[in-house]
Amino acid sequence: MTEAAQRSPHNALLIGSPNCGKTLLFNRLTGLQHRVANFPGITVEIASGKLSGHPGVTLYDYPGTYSLQAISGEERVAVEQFESALGDPELGLVMCVIDVTRLEKSLYFALQVIRECGRAGKPVLVLANMIDVLENHKISIDLEALSRDMGAMVIGISARTGQGLDKLDEVISQQLLHPQAPANNHEPDILLRGNAHQLARNYGPKGDVLLRTQNRMDAFFLHTGFGGIAFFAIMYLLFQSIFTWSAPAMDAVEAGLAGLSDLVVPMLAPRLVQDFAADALFSGIGAFLVFVPQIFVLTFVIGLLEDSGYMARAALICHRPLRFFGLTGKSFIPMLSGVACAIPGIYAARSIDSPRRRFLTYLAIPLMPCSARLPVYTLLIAAFIPSTTALGGLVGYQGLAMFLVYLFGMVCGLLVTAMVSRFSTQQEPDLPFVLEMPAYRLPTLVPLLRKSWRRCKLFITKAGGIIVTVTVVIWVLGYFPNYGADLGASWLGQIGRLVEPVFAPLGLDWRYGVAVMSSFLAREVFVGTLGVMFGIEGAEENMVPLVAQIQNSDLGLASGVALLVFFAVALMCVSTMAVLSKEAGSNRLAIRMFFVYSSMAYLFALIAYQLVTFLGG
User: Fold this and answer.
1) What single Pfam family name could you report for this chain, choosing any that match (predicted)?
2) Distance CA 414, CA 325 (A)
3) For the CA atoms of the chain, what is the radius of gyration?
């Protein structure tokens, strides 16, 4: 670029329909690793990054939309921001991504974008993505003729392989230096739709070669019988993998922490510092870090399902049963996203067209078993469920228990939405369920591994500040005034006696009561708090895994089950409440959900405790 061009900062927009490869292209053009998946509704926020090779140029990635007539909340974000950006003098270029394997779906929106850019005097490039797929099937497309008929330059690229990006970089430089806007036209949308249909017939791939593989796979995955069986098998394997795949890494982290503790603690002085390092750092924070590998595995497996295109099929399979509970098939993805974290799940609910069903989805998402619950579940399941297997190792009892507790949370979410939808007086017309079936694609492992690693880092940093703060406070209260000689006589013990009557009906002593109360800041704090308290009690021993310490304590099976039930239902995340208030436009919903779900959690935990006790547990 010239010096004059470098002195003139510009913004560039990246816009397109869902599943056109827009976000993957954004990652390549900016060097970022924004979330990429093969399902409509994944990108629900506007992402930005510096355009590589073009100093001073910021590239914005808008959510996918099928047209400028927005229906869903996600599309409204894209359309409103696009219309606003066209009036911004800093906007130097609009890039509209189309899927050349499904031209008609993309061309209508692209023609609308070209028309609006012509009216605003903004240059526009049409990026024909997935050109490599056509070449693999020996299909050609006349991009020069398509450019002439569309009234804007069309460049063939592959966001997956990087094909055509060098040429794109050159054209971007030319457009920023010498912008050329398309001709100003006022063609109505109905005429543009007809034009898109005709262009797709003239230039689109002929025949059904691109659909044969998809149809064969859909015949199995969407089959009335086999499709349902495959769905439950895949979901079961998802939760089973949380234990089996992450076990070696968890053992390695645990052994590393134990070895580091034995090496570091004896080198410290005075004894106060030794006790803090052993009890607060290694027993408290370390107990939480042991379970991070499971977050990595959970994110990785869900990413495999998203990138492969199976998620859209799962949403279609779930549509009919979800309607019984007042939801829609589009609720499945926000709910499953809530398994990783409730916050992206709430954002993903923007893709739901119906405001009422979006509200019901908000009610269900906090009950999805998110990754913050995972350390708690793993700790309690490892303490009470044997690690034996059945059916030649295909079924592990701990994995089965994890599947059941996840299923319990999901069922609770569905029952809540069913009750609210049945007894609510608010009614609205039932919008048709329309969902695009993206092509099946092989997931790209490197971006998936990066995303999983980034998710682990985000999980640690997000919870880290809270965990460190709570751990230090718990250690100070438990260590003084008797310097750890008697935890029950410490300041923490005195506070614990005040909350103990609340948890005594669940068979929990004050230690577990304090851990539960502290976890209302963030669920995963429960593990760190217990680690600190058990660390203070066992200060004369080497670092012992928290699972073994719970097994050696007086916590019974009934109390363990009650804790699992309590954490499955209670709304114990300040960040989730804040995002929910923002998306719902009111604090009232989040506050009411907090108190209602907490009361439900205690009641269900009490029932579970009495039931297990009655059965001899």
Assistant:
1) Gate
2) 6
3) 27
Q: Fill in the DSSP letter of residue 329.
A: G
Q: Which stretch of 168-172, 212-216, 433-437 has the lowest confidence by average pLDDT?
A: 433-437
**Domain 3-207: CATH superfamily, name plus number:** P-loop containing nucleotide triphosphate hydrolases (3.40.50.300)
Q: Are 257 and 235 in contact (CB under 8 A)?
A: no
**Cβ atoms 325, 418 nearer than 8 A:** yes
Check residue 56 and give left, alpha or beta (phi > 0: left; psi -120 to 50: alpha).
left
Share of the chain above pLDDT 70, in %: 87
The whole-angstrom separation of Cα 8 and Cα 243 is 54
Residue 239: which H helix or E strand, with range?
Answer: helix 226-244
- The distance from CA 263 to its chain's CA centroid, rounded to whole angstroms, is 38
In contact, 565 and 522? CB cutoff 8 Å: no
144-153, 159-168, 420-429, 583-592: the lowest-pLDDT one = 420-429
Type and span of the H or E element at 216: helix 209-221
Between β-strands 153-156 and 124-129, what pairing exists: parallel, antiparallel or unpaired?
A: parallel
Phi-psi category of 72—alpha, beta or left, where left has phi over 0 and alpha has psi -120 to 50? beta
Q: What is the pLDDT of residues 235-246, one digit of tens each?
A: 777 767 766 777
Report H helices in 480-586: 491-503, 510-518, 525-537, 546-552, 557-569, 574-584
Mean pLDDT of 476-480: 82
Question: Quick count: other Cβ atoms within 10 Å of Cβ 487?
Answer: 22
In one-letter notation, the amino acid at residue 468 is V
Give one DSSP letter per residue of 94-109, joined into a string. EEEEEEGGGHHHHHHH
Q: Could you give the angle at which helices 525-537 and 445-479 cross, rounded to 10 degrees?
A: 40
The order of strands in the sheet holding 124-129 is 47-50, 57-61, 10-16, 91-99, 124-129, 153-156
Tell me the domain boundaries of the chain. 3-207
Contact 558, 613 (CB under 8 A): yes
User: Tokens at residue 377, please?
Assistant: 């579940």
Q: What residues contact 608, with CB distance under 8 A and at least 6 apart?
A: 558, 561, 562, 564, 565
Yes or no: say if 320 and 341 are a contact pair by the CB < 8 Å rule: no
Contacts of 431 (CB under 8 A, 6+ apart): 353, 354
Which range has the worst mean pLDDT, 57-71, 131-145, 258-272, 276-290?
276-290
Measured CA to CA in angstroms, residue 10 lies from 32, 54, 56, 183 at distances of 19, 10, 7, 22
Planar angle of CA 148, 152, 154, nearest 5 degrees = 85
Tokens coding 55:
């100093």
Looking at every residue in the chain, the average pLDDT score rounds to: 81
pLDDT at 39 over 60: no
CB environment 267-301: b (16+ within 10 A), e (fewer): eeeeeeebbbbbbbbbbbbbbbbbbbbbbbbbbbb
DSSP letter at 25 equals H
